Amino acid sequence: MAKTSRASSRNKLAPQMAAFLKACADETRLRLINLLAAEGEVCVCHLVDVLNTNQPKVSRHLAYLKRAGLVSDRKDGLWVHYRLAEPLAQHAERLIECINSCFAESPEMRRDVVKLREVRTAQPIVKLMGRSGRAVSAKPAG
After folding, report:
1. Residue 15: what pLDDT?
2. Which residue, 34, 86, 126, 132, has most beta carbons within 10 Å?
3. Which of 29, 45, 34 lies closest to 110 in space, CA to CA?
């Protein structure tokens, strides 16, 4: 029985690893992983500003990472916040650590993190009260 269980685990690992590596095979997705690993939970609106691209593109790449099991999301009023998924499978966690050590040597990846910190400071997400009395989120015009 133990042999079957181990073989079954190994059979599931290969497709999971393939999905993970495919998810990492794109510069935009690597930049997103870098930002989430460095800063934790981040609003899509801030990621759009840092990557200097449009919201649909960022959301599409985040959805790809979510399908691969690498990120999770949380809605807060009008905004969606993403973070690295917890718990990541052990093999995925080790690969993220390896990727992050490579990011530490990349000037572009370091610039992205600095820019994200600046954007988050300059454009905080604030809670406003809507007409119904319910809280809604708003990002000040920047």
Report:
1. 86
2. 34
3. 34
CA distance 26 to 79: 25
Structure-token pair, residue 70: 């690498």
Whether the ω angle into residue 107 lies within 30 degrees of 0, i.e. cis, is no
Provide the b/e sequence for 91-125 (b: ≥16 CB within 10 Å): ebeebbeebeeebeeeeebeebbebbeebbeebeb
Identify which has the larger pLDDT, 32 or 94: 32
The residues, any chain, with a CB within 8 Å of residue 98's CB and separated by 6 or more, are: none
Overall average pLDDT of the 50-75 stretch: 96
For residue 49, the SS3 value is: helix
Q: What is the mean pLDDT of residues 16-20?
A: 85
**What is the reported pTM?**
0.79
Q: Does the domain formed by 2-138 have CATH 3.40.50.20? A: no
Contact 99, 24 (CB under 8 A): yes
